[in-house]
Design brief:
Blueprint: H1 15-18, E1 31-35, E2 39-40, H2 52-65, E3 71-75, E4 80-84, H3 86-94, E5 99-104, H4 109-122, H5 128-141, H6 146-153, H7 157-164, H8 171-178, H9 184-190, H10 196-209, H11 213-224, H12 233-236, H13 239-256, E6 260-265, E7 268-273, H14 278-288
Helix pairs in contact: 2-3, 4-5, 6-7, 8-10, 9-11
Length: 289
């Protein structure tokens, strides 16, 4: 079966690079053992962070079994630029390998970025912020529209828009997301907070109190639209004020001969006069008249 063409199949992932249904053992593609020092990482690689512990585990596996899946590179004047497989290359260096199996492809700058992004997305290796930065690079550096990016990476346009919104976070909150101290859901919930310090303070509260995404959304809404608590007059009333209210009530009780309650708030209120029978009501009315 023929290998995939270099410029075909963008958006179909790693298979577009090495061809679908390829059996490497039958040499359908040419795998070369390259000097490991001739291979170098792509500074535009979407993935920026590598877990040291997982990298060491992979290095131990490579010492035992070697590199099972070849990395994919493209030839440059400097050597061989990694298109897919930087983690395997890093682990191979940790394992002190002198050579690494690789498939060499002729690719343009755009194809390199596309394929690196696709591979990481399919492997679910990218942090949401790394993915957002890579998608933005496609849009900015290659003058792409969100619809084109959506087609390339196999995501809906709303999903692309949602991911790109993460770039509006403050730098310190981005760092929390990059180091997985908050999730992408928490990060999106913080976006309505436009003040950087307020956004960071809220993010730290989310971390410290281990708030869920739903709780974070409610917290942000409360920060933006704080509830105005109704203060009961008696809670803030002075002793003199309370005495004056009681004095008026006592005067009315004495005049009407029944229980009277005075409710005052902000210089207005109501007087509640109690009666216990129709005769009692008639008596009170006669006094008032």
């Amino acid at each position: 079966m023929a290998a995939a063409k270099n410029k075909g199949g963008l958006g179909k992932g790693l298979g577009a690079l090495i061809g679908s249904d390829i059996d490497l053992s039958e040499n359908h593609v040419s795998v070369q053992n390259l000097p490991i020092d001739s291979v170098y990482p792509n500074i535009d690689q979407p993935r920026k962070t590598f877990d040291d512990e997982r990298l060491k585990e992979l290095a131990d596996s490579i010492k035992e079994s070697g590199v099972i899946i070849p990395i994919i590179v493209t030839k440059t004047e400097k050597g061989y630029l990694i298109v897919a497989g930087e983690r395997r290359w890093r682990a191979s260096k940790l394992a002190n390998l002198k050579e690494i199996p690789a498939i060499v492809r002729e690719l343009s700058g755009l194809e390199i970025l596309q394929q690196a992004l696709i591979e990481n997305i399919q492997r679910q290796d990218l942090n949401p912020l790394e993915e957002a930065e890579a998608l933005q690079k496609l849009i900015t550096d290659y003058d792409m529209k969100q619809e084109e990016v959506s087609t390339i990476v196999g995501r809906s346009r709303p999903a692309i828009t949602n991911i790109l919104r993460l770039l509006n976070l403050s730098d310190k909150v981005k760092d929390l997301l990059l180091h997985e101290e908050i999730s992408a859901g928490h990060a999106r919930a913080l976006l309505p907070l436009t003040d950087s310090e307020q956004q960071l303070e809220t993010a730290e509260k989310v971390i410290n109190e281990q708030l869920s995404v739903r709780q974070t959304e409610k917290l942000v809404k409360l920060i933006i639209n704080p509830r105005k608590e109704k203060v009961k007059p008696k809670e803030n009333a002075t002793d003199d004020y309370l005495l004056s209210i009681k004095s008026v009530e006592d005067r009315l009780i004495k005049a009407l001969g029944t229980k009277v309650t005075l409710k005052d708030q902000n210089n207005k209120g109501k007087i509640i006069i109690e009666y216990f029978s129709n005769e009692d009501l008639d008596r009170i009315l006669e006094i008032i008249e």
